[in-house]
Amino acid sequence: MKKISIYDTTLRDGTQADEINLSSPDKIRIALKLDELGVDYIEGGWPGSNKTDRAFFAEIKKHQLNHSKIAAFGSTHAAKNNAENDKNLNMLIDAAPDVVTLFGKTWDLHVREALRVPLERNLELIHDSLAYLRPKFSEIFYDAEHFFDGYKANRDYALATLKKAHEAGADVLVLCDTNGGTMPQEISDIIADLKKELGDARFGIHTHNDSEMAVANSIQAVLQGAEQIQGTINGYGERCGNANLCSIIPNLELKFDGQYQCLPEGKLQQLTTISNFVSETCNLRPFLRQPYVGRSAFAHKGGVHVSAVMRNALTYEHIVPEGVGNHQRILLSDLSGRSNILFMAKKYGYDLDKNDSAVLDLLTEIKERESIGYEYSSAEASFELMFFRAMGWSKQYFKLMNFSVMDAMRKNGEAFIEATVRLKVGGKIEHTAASGMGQVNSLDQALRKALYPFYPCLKEMRLDDFKVRVLSGTTRDTGGTASNVRVLIESADKDSRWTTVGVSYDVIHASWEALVDSVNYKLFKDDPKKWPSKAD
Amino acid sequence: MKKISIYDTTLRDGTQADEINLSSPDKIRIALKLDELGVDYIEGGWPGSNKTDRAFFAEIKKHQLNHSKIAAFGSTHAAKNNAENDKNLNMLIDAAPDVVTLFGKTWDLHVREALRVPLERNLELIHDSLAYLRPKFSEIFYDAEHFFDGYKANRDYALATLKKAHEAGADVLVLCDTNGGTMPQEISDIIADLKKELGDARFGIHTHNDSEMAVANSIQAVLQGAEQIQGTINGYGERCGNANLCSIIPNLELKFDGQYQCLPEGKLQQLTTISNFVSETCNLRPFLRQPYVGRSAFAHKGGVHVSAVMRNALTYEHIVPEGVGNHQRILLSDLSGRSNILFMAKKYGYDLDKNDSAVLDLLTEIKERESIGYEYSSAEASFELMFFRAMGWSKQYFKLMNFSVMDAMRKNGEAFIEATVRLKVGGKIEHTAASGMGQVNSLDQALRKALYPFYPCLKEMRLDDFKVRVLSGTTRDTGGTASNVRVLIESADKDSRWTTVGVSYDVIHASWEALVDSVNYKLFKDDPKKWPSKAD
Fold it and tell me: Cβ of A494: how many Cβ atoms within 10 Å?
């Protein structure tokens, strides 16, 4: 079994992504999670480029890491300096990481157009920078920027840069497909050639996904002998992103007959959790279709597939989802036919016949609702309420009479928001008002105020997430602001989490519907008398 | 130059994706676009499985296609029938497509667990189904479901199924990696073996992306001689999706020295447009980081990268973006340093020095605003207004005094929404009210009502899209409904489109801010007197 080093650059190259901006505390939180996962190296940033990154290196020292080494990134010294008096190199030393990764230019075009120095001078920059840092660190990696493009443009010069880095003592020569345009066959051919020229060097690979080949290229390099893979969680990174470690790691560990090991034993099961943690911390919506760790990665919708998967999951799943910390999902949809509903019914304890009229009615209702924008695959609690109503459950915990929200900006620029709710519980009318942070929060507070006296268990419940999705793109007549809106509300108590849905052309009415479902679900779930026992 | 057939299955396998449900008119609109792009085959659906798909085949006949052939999908006949009396096969005939694609079982596990018939019987199903359809269609393709898994589990049986399909007259044997778990090296080895056994057969490839290898695997198959690629626009499809045609096509056309042709001459430039069209029609948010066609595919954020790209785009772009109908974007962000702002300034006609105090002030303002949730990379119109204000532009087209929105549900369940706006134009106070579809639309209408008398040009402007994003996940104290909200509004007139941004804890206040920016931008853009001419 061969150990492949995992070098995570989520905190440096990952933050180059459109939409990603991480604060220094965010970076620390992610680093601690990466250490827990057991990646070998965590690249924390480029101390020479900004304060946030410098703060990271100072702060991370206060934490005890179990597995990962901290790497700092920087460039070869500026052409106008020598290594010893270069600010960027000295900031790397000041940051005092475990490892330094230095990048240099490989492609003659870049030496001319970006560095604007003679080709020979660039070789000196590479050599002198590495030679200066070498005695100060136990490990130094050299990132050969644009290696593959450089090789294709001027093979001899590209090789000369690598040889310089090798001579100057870099431990690993990391071959970068910086622009992401290289095909796997080229990766193979070029590394094969390289091994002839630099037989005793150790190689790493750093790819970008501009041709949707970053994962394939990384694995191709490993097959050619590369020992280190640089990538990011979820493939975050500039343009189309970096090589996605969440796919590379399970591919190497699960698809090559145990030839490769990337993470410490037993850590692969944390992959889905860390993927979600990083997307949440970056404040990005997780990519549903993401291989291995995505919410849809083991989701089955087609009726035929669902019935096969129910018999044997292997029929439509390439691995056991729990192996990467994910799980199977059965989607409710008009394409799915009755088998999905039967599957859910079973989960709720009902063994129904596929020709049962309740099943057919429910299918019709789902189709109608989906056609106007409801979506039950993520809002299972709303589905469950609908299912039990179809089974004859008819209890009403409260009866809404009316609500209102007023949202205004006053002359002095101050906001004023107020919600009122009027409802009946048993025979009693409750009429409440509340002012919260925003309209939905105000409505939520007014609703709770009305219900607490009757249902104190609602105090344990909290709203954890609130998602708004505008459904149709354009309504020309009235402007896009008249589009339909779907609201998903995620709620939680000490035992469980549930999601409910509401749809309307108006965000408040959609939110209200999801809010009421959420409260009803909590009351339903905790209600010992919701249903006469089946023995009755 | 070798022609590779492109077989699009967005309308069939694509619709198996989580979150995708297409109506029959949607399917027709997408088919017409695919024909415009020039794919060779459009798989419209599975007539035996549902009404929507049957309606598609009836409807598409009313349209004149220029390039594409229409394919219908179906399975081998049911084991209890013979081919002639099988409903599914006869529905394929009734649908009368140009081409039929029949799928059958390759993997012995599936024959036993899903079909539940003896292995020998499955060979008969394959043969008899194809032999029955063969004389009725000029082209028939055979999709060997789970081919690679089947080959690995029981090579001889997998080959026997293919040989049966070949004997029965299938024109192309399409090798499916249905579960998406196969590595490129296996694709290569298995097809090489296959060619020895079935030397005179023509092969196609159909892959899924569960290992993030669907694009690499498709291309690997082409390198081994496959002539047809089955995939979907944007890689939509079940679980992690199908092979992404938006990456495969440009990879083959641009990365192999002109060896392969997929689309008619000059059509590749339509790729970004069709990708966006399909995601809009499917009502899915486009994937920013999507290779070639994504909004971020040629977006540059890092200050170093931006300055290099400004000198020579080749330094950080693997192809010319316009070749696939995309374009370069420079992102505004706290990581980007001053060079991005200088780049935008240049675009607006200002040649600023990087130490100009206006540049530094603007950078500080952007950073502050981004830290509370503003995002200018997509809201360039809001940035432009901010930029010109920093340059000394101070005109105020109107002065807002106050607004209010009331949103209520009455006792009878009816919604009542009303917005009021009070503002001053010149010395005159306008106080208006309107009731529209939803709160933002009502506010928009009240605002326009107040401004039309002074600025009739606003009548040409419309709001085209409205996006809401809840920014921070959780605020435990008050429930998730108190999170911050970012609203992006896209507006258009006859000449141009622009996007503005607003941020608040309250969706209405955020919408109002974006709305006011949008109107201001329209007035600014059309105003000949906004600025004393530079010669003054």
Answer: 7
Q: Tens of pLDDT along B384-419?
A: 999 999 998 888 999 999 999 999 888 777 888 999
What class has domain A2-264? alpha beta
pLDDT over 50 (residue A478): no
CA dist., res. A189 & res. A55, Å (int):
42
Nearest CA in chain B to A444: B481
- Confirm if A25 and A55 have CB atoms less than 8 A apart: no
Answer CATH for B398-454 from 3.30.200, 3.30.160, 2.60.40, 1.20.58: 3.30.160
Phi and psi (nearest 5°) for B24?
A: -65, -45
Q: Is the pLDDT of residue B335 over 60?
A: no
Q: Hey, of A22, A46, A110, A211, which one would you mutate to test binding to chain B, going by the most B CBs within 10 A of its CB?
A: A211
- Measured between CA atoms, how close is A194 to chain B, in angstroms? 21
Look at residue A535 in the predicted model and tell me its pLDDT: 47
Cα dihedral B388, B393, B394, B398, rounded to 10, equals -70
**pTM (predicted TM-score):** 0.77
Task: Compute the distance between CA of residue B118 and CA of residue B79 in angstroms, rounded to an integer.
Answer: 10
> Could you tell me if B241 and B213 are in contact, meaning their C-beta atoms sit under 8 angstroms apart?
no
The ipTM (two decimal places) reads 0.77
Scanning A120-159 for CB atoms below 8 A from B yields none
Please indicate if any CB of chain B lies within 8 Å of the CB of A116: no
A402: left (phi over 0), alpha (psi -120 to 50) or beta: beta
Cβ neighbours for A222, distance < 8 A, ≥ 6 positions apart? A4, A205, A229, A252, A260
Where does the pLDDT of residue A477 fall: very low under 50, low under 70, confident under 90, or very high at 90 and above?
A: very low
- Whether B377 and chain A come into contact, CB under 8 Å, resolves to yes
* Cα angle value B489/B490/B494 (rounded, 5°): 145
The predicted structure's pLDDT at residue B372: 78
Does B536 contact chain A (CB < 8 Å)? no
CA-CA distance, A481 to B462, in Å (whole number)? 10
Among A481, A488, A494, A515, the strongest candidate for a mutation testing the B interface, having the largest count of B CBs within 10 A, is A481
Q: DSSP string of A105-170? A: E--HHHIIIII-S-HHHHHHHHHHHHHHHGGG-SEEEEEEETHHHHHHH-HHHHHHHHHHHHHTT-
B336 pLDDT band (50/70/90 cuts)? low
Residues 499-518 (A) with a CB less than 8 A from some CB of B? 504-509, 511-512
Domain ranges of chain A: 2-264, 299-367, 403-454
Indicate if the alpha-carbon torsion angle A211, A216, A220, A226 is positive or negative: positive
> What is the rounded CA–CA span in Å between residue B109 and residue B121?
14
Q: Which of B509, B468, B459, B505 is nearest to B487 (CA)?
A: B468
The residues near B265 (Cβ < 8 Å, ≥ 6 apart) are none
Quick: pLDDT tens for A120-159.
999 999 999 999 999 999 999 999 999 999 999 999 999 9
pLDDT, residue B302, reads: 63
CA angle B286, B289, B294 (to 5 degrees): 55
Q: Is the pLDDT of residue A473 over 70?
A: no
The separation between CA B101 and the C-alpha centre of its own chain, rounded to angstroms, equals 26
pLDDT tens digits along A226-241: 999 999 999 999 999 9
Average pLDDT over every residue of B209-226:
98
Handedness of CA B90, B94, B96, B101 (dihedral sign): negative
Strand pairing class (B203-207; B228-231): parallel
**Residue A449 to chain B, least CA–CA distance (Å):** 13
Which residues, 6+ apart, have CB-to-CB distance to A114 below 8 Å? Answer: A105, B308, B311, B315
Task: Kindly state whether B67 is in contact with chain A, defined as any CB-CB distance less than 8 angstroms.
Answer: no
Residue B108 CB coordination number (10 Å)? 18
